[in-house]
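Sample intake sheet
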Amino acid sequence: MRNEVILQKLYSYSEKLMNYCQGYTYESFSEDTKLVEACVFNLSQMGELCRIVDAAFAECRPEIPWREMNGLRNRIVHDYEGVNLRLVWEIISGDIPGLRNILKALL
């Protein structure tokens, strides 16, 4: 997969996450099973893309947390039942908006 396509997909997933969670608090998010599953899926997809991106391409874009997103994917995939919803919420509400802006600027 071309690196530019990966950036586009990462941007798309970040947009989905922000749209899904608009108007939610942590409490309402954590009680909505469908929303949680959709968000966790999108985060895992983002991590998978970060895993397959070309290493040289990633090194030239240190503003994107490639390793951290892949690490989150690994935690989700290998320990789904143990996913920390507070951490998921903090990533979506705190980190994803900035990442989305970075990705938008790169596209």
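Comment: The mean pLDDT is 94. Helices lie at 3-21, 26-31, 33-52, 55-59, 66-78, 85-106.
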